[in-house]
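Data deposition worksheet. Section B asks for the primary sequence of the deposited chain exactly as it was used as input, without tags or linkers unless they were present during the calculation. Section C holds the resulting structure in token form. Section D is free text for depositor observations; keep each observation to a single sentence. Incomplete worksheets are returned to the depositor.
Section A, Depositor: J.P.
Section B:
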Amino acid sequence: MQPRATLTRLMDGEKMQSLGHMVAWDGLEKIFECKTLELEDRGNSRNISRIPQGSYWVSPRESEKYGWHFHVLGVPDRSYILFHAGNKYTHTKGCILVGTSFKHMDSDGIIDVVWSRHTMDKMLKAMPEGFRLFIVDIDK
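Section C:
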């Protein structure tokens, strides 16, 4: 059985972002857990919006810019939606950032995710072949 993960969008943040919690399972065993940060919902518009809720296959990928990360496949009208390291909403153009927790990292008053690179490394080790992702919006 392939791993599966549920990303639950918990709330829209103070400015242009959505905050969530993701849990991954392999059968009945929890294998990974993290916080997520995405852009707010702007109708799935490229570079300025999170992707729609739904089910997606996620595959490992390597690039010069992000190193090893994950690629979300099958997003309607979008391409190259990634899970990658980053801390602030300004670090994403529609992708999903991961971290261990939420925290105000600077004086801008906007919630960020922390320990993102560490979290991405753990995610890659937990699901090296990819996983099925289910995104659920409960933030509305």
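Section D:
The chain has a mean pLDDT of 94.
The chain has one helix and ten strands.
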